Amino acid sequence: MKKVFSVLSVLVIFMLLVIPSLSVQGLQAGDNYYFNVKRAKGSFNYTNGGTTTSGNTSSFRVGTHSIPVNAQIRAHVNSISSGDVSYSIYDSSDAKLTDVTSNGFNFALGLIYYSFFPFIVMGISSGTVNPIDPTIGVSLSDNFYFAPPSTDWNNVYDYYNDSTNWEDLYNSFDTAESNVTGSSYAKWYDAGETISFLVSVMGRYIISNESTDLIIIHTLRFDYNVTSYTLQGYNLQTTISGTYKGEDTTFSMSVQIAEENYTRPLGLSWIYLGVGIITTFTIMLLVKKKVKAI
User: Fold this and answer.
1) Residues 6+ away with beta carbon under 8 Å from 98
2) What angle do CA 174, 170, 224 make, to 5 degrees?
3) Residue 64: what are its φ and ψ, rounded to 5°?
4) What are the pLDDT digits (tens) for 267-292?
5) Where are the alpha helices (DSSP H) in the chain?
C-alpha cells in the first residue's frame, strides 16, 4: 500500500508561504466573528495500528469541548502579525474553549492533511491530524477560522485547479484492483471577494491480499473571505464502509459550520453531485456483480 505526504507537503507550504502582506484589510485585533454549527454527526468503527475507534456522536468539537448542533461559537482575534493570526474561541456563554495561532506553515499543511482527514486517521494515508473521539464530537482542526496574512489566495486558486498537484495524494488508492477517482477545484465568488475550494475522493478501494474492500465517498469544501482572511464556512461529507484489513469498517462523518452572515450554500456544485451519483451507481453495480459471483 502506498503512502503519501512527503515532497508534496513541502511544495504546498512553499507555494502558500509567499512574501507576507504588510496588513490585512478588514481584520483587526479585537474583532469578533461568530460561527453557526449547522451540522455535526459521525458513526465510527475502524482500527488503525491496533487501536479501535468505535461510537456515534452528534456534537461539534472545539478543542476538547463538545458543542451542540445549532449552537454558535465566537472567534476573537487576539493579535495579527505579517505571518500569523492568534485568536481564541468561546462558546455562547463566553467560556473560552481553546486558543489558536494560525501561521503559514500549519495552515498550508493543514489544508492538505485535513482534505484527506478520514484516510489519515484510518491509516490509509500517512500524516498527522487530530484523532477522532466520539465522546467529544467531530470537526476539522480549530486552525481554519482565520487564514494567516501570508496566504496568497491566487496561488491557492491555481493549486486547486491543477489536478496534477494532487496526483501523489491519490497514489494511496492506486492499486490494480481499485477504482478510485479524485478531483479538486476552486472558484471565485462575489467579484473576487470569496474563494471556494473543494477536494473529492470517490470509488472502490481494494487490496485483496490485505483483505481490504472499501466503498469511499468523500468531499470537503472550504469558503474564505479573501479580504478579511476569515473562514466563511466548511462542509465535510464522508462515507467509508466495507472491510479494512479483514475487519468490518465504518467511517461516516458529516460536519458543516458557517460564519453567521454567510448565506451561500456550502454543498457541492451540480458537476460534483453528478460525479458522485455516477460513481455511486458504478460502485453499486460492481458490488452486485461481486455478490452474484460469490
Assistant:
1) 62, 63, 64, 65, 88, 89, 142
2) 165
3) -110, 25
4) 765 445 455 444 444 444 444 344 33
5) 7-16, 104-115, 117-122, 153-160, 167-170, 270-293
**Is the pLDDT reported for residue 27 higher than 90?**
no
Q: Which residue has the cell 465522546?
A: 135
Report the mean per-residue pLDDT for the chain.
85
C-alpha cell read off for 11: 511544495
Could you identify the residue written with the cell 462542509?
235
Please give the grid coordinates belonging to residue 17. Answer: 508561504
Q: Is 283 exposed, middle or buried (0-12, 13-18, 19+ CB in 10 A)?
A: middle
In this structure, the dihedral spanned by the alpha carbons of residues 159, 224, 59 and 112, taken in order and rounded to 10 degrees, is 20
Extended beta strands in the chain, E state: 32-48, 51-57, 59-62, 65-68, 72-80, 84-90, 96-103, 179-189, 194-207, 212-225, 230-244, 247-259
The number of residues making up the chain comes to 294
With a CB cutoff of 8 Å and minimum separation 6, the contacts of 10 are none
Kindly calculate the radius of gyration of the chain based on its CA atoms and give it in whole angstroms.
19
Q: What is the largest CA-CA distance in the chain?
A: 64
Strand partners, 233: 223, 258
User: Where residue 168 falls among pLDDT bands split at 50, 70, 90?
Assistant: confident
Cβ-Cβ contacts under 8 Å for 126 (sequence gap 6 or more): 3, 4, 5, 120
